[in-house]
Amino acid sequence: MSTLTLPQPDFMQDEELRMFADAAQRFFSRAAPPVRVQQWINDGQVEREFWTEVGEAGFLGVSLPEEYGGPGGDFRHDIVLCETCARLGLDGFAITLHNVIVAPYIQLHGTEEQKQRWLPKLVSGERVCAIAMSEPGAGSDLQAIRTTALKDGDGYRINGSKTFISNGQIADFIVVVAKTDPSKGARGVSLLVVETDKVEGFRRGNKLDKIGHEAQDTSELFFDDVYVPAENLLGGVEGKGFFQLMAELPRERLIIAVNSVIAMEKAINWTLDYTKDRKAFGQSVFEFQNTQFQLAACKAKAVVARTFVNDCIEKACNGTLDNDTSAIAKMWVTDTEWEIMDACLQLHGGYGYVNEFPIAKQWKNSRIQRIYGGSNEIMKVLIARGL
Ligand SMILES: Cc1cc2nc3c(=O)[nH]c(=O)nc-3n(C[C@H](O)[C@H](O)[C@H](O)COP(=O)(O)OP(=O)(O)OC[C@H]3O[C@@H](n4cnc5c(N)ncnc54)[C@H](O)[C@@H]3O)c2cc1C
Fold first, then answer.
1. Which of 8, 41, 82, 194 has the most CB atoms within 10 Å of its CB?
2. Around 279, how many Cα atoms within 13 Å sit in the side-chain half-sphere?
3. Which residue owns the Cα nearest ligand 1 atom 32?
4. Coil, strand, or helix at residue 357?
5. Number of the ligand 1 atom closest to the C-alpha atom of 210
C-alpha cells in the first residue's frame, strides 16, 4: 500500500485533535465497514439508524457549544470528521451537510429560542438535516427561485418545489429557501425550517439516478400549502435569507475543497500501487517515464492544493476566510481534483473504467465537485467581481 500523505493542517499537532481523529477513525471504521457501505450503495441511501448511532457516539454537531447539547468543539473538529469520512469512502453519509452547513445556520442565525429548540436534536441525531435551495428552474441564479412562504395568520404557507436536495429521502429537518416577499428580490428571501413530521402537504419526489455518489439520496421535494408557525422563520425577521446564505458560503465551499484534497491523496496512492504492480513491455507501468512524470505532476498539484486548503482552514478557524478566497479554493482545487482523477484513471488503463476499481468510483464522484456549492463558472464570476 502506497502512503503518500499530503501536508496536514498545523492544528493536527494538537494532542486533543489527534485523539479526536483517532476516535473518529476507530468509530467510523467499525460502524461503517465496507459491507454496510455497499448496502447503502445498493439502497441508494444511508439507513436512518446510522444517523442515530453517530449521534449517540457524539460525532454530530461536534462544533456546537455545550449549552445547546454539543461537545463544544470548533471548526477543526468538523474538518477532522470530514476528512475521516472522506478517507473511508463514506460519501453517502452527508455528515458535513448536517454538521458544517445546516447546524451553523441555526447556531449563527437562529433566535435563542430556536437554538434551544432545535440544536440538541441535531446533536443527538433525532433530526437529520437538509438545505433546500435549488429548484427545477433555478440553481445558480438563486434570486430566481419561485418557492414562496407567504404570511398566513400566525405562520407561513410554503408552496413550491425543490430539486437536487441531498438527504432528500431521509431528512426530517429541512431549511427551505423561499420568498416571503416576491416583489423585493434578494431582500424578499427568507429561510424557514420545515420539520417534516409536523406538517401536511410536504412530499418527497424521486430519488435522482446519478452517475456518482450512489449512496446519497439526492431528491426532489414538494411543498403544497405547507403551513409552518412564524417561530420557524430563521432568525425571526423576514428578508434575511439571502444574507444568511451568503454569510455561510465560504465555509461550505472550503469543505468541498477539503473533500477534493482527500480524493487526490487517495487517487494518487491507488495509482502508485496499481502502476507498480501492473506489467507491460517487460516492466512495471510505473517504470515508464510518462507514468512517473504524470504522477509527479499529480503530486505537485495535490501538495499545492493541500497547502492552500490548509491556509484556508486556518483562516476559517480565525474568522478571516473571505468569499473571494473560498471561491478560489472551490474553483481551483476542484478543477485540479478533476485533472488528477482523469490522469490517475488513464494510468489504470481499461481497469480504470471498471467499477470494481476504486479509481472508477472516485472519478465519477469527483465530477460533481465542479458543479455543486456554486458551479466553478459562478466562482469565476465572483472572483472576477473583485478584479
Ligand atoms: C449531487 C448533487 C447534490 C446537490 N445537493 C444540493 C443540496 O443539498 N441543496 C441544494 O439546494 N442544491 C443542491 N444541489 C444543486 C446544485 O447546487 C446545483 O446543481 C448547482 O448550483 C447548479 O445549478 P443548476 O444545476 O440549476 O445549473 P444552472 O444554474 O442551470 O447552470 C447550468 C450551466 O450554466 C452555467 N452558468 C449559470 N450561470 C452562469 C453565469 N452567470 N455565468 C456563466 N455560466 C453560468 C453553470 O455554471 C452551468 O455550467 C446538488 C446538486 C447535485 C448534482
1. 194
2. 3
3. 140
4. coil
5. 1
**Whose Cα sits closest to atom 35 in ligand 1?**
377
Q: Which residues line ligand 1 (CB under 6 A)?
A: 131-134, 139-140, 164-166, 210, 213, 218, 368, 371-372, 375, 377-378, 381
- Cross-strand bridge partners of residue 179: 148, 189
Tens-place pLDDT, residues 229-281? 999 999 999 999 999 999 888 999 999 999 999 999 999 999 999 999 999 99
* pTM, rounded to two decimals: 0.96
> Where does residue 127 rank: exposed (0-12), middle (13-18), buried (19+ CB within 10 A)?
buried
Distance separating alpha carbons of residues 208 and 118, to the nearest angstrom: 29
Low-confidence ranges of the chain (pLDDT < 50): none
For residue 231, indicate whether it is catalytic. no
Look up residue 139 and give its DSSP letter. Answer: S
Sign of CA dihedral 99, 105, 108, 112: negative
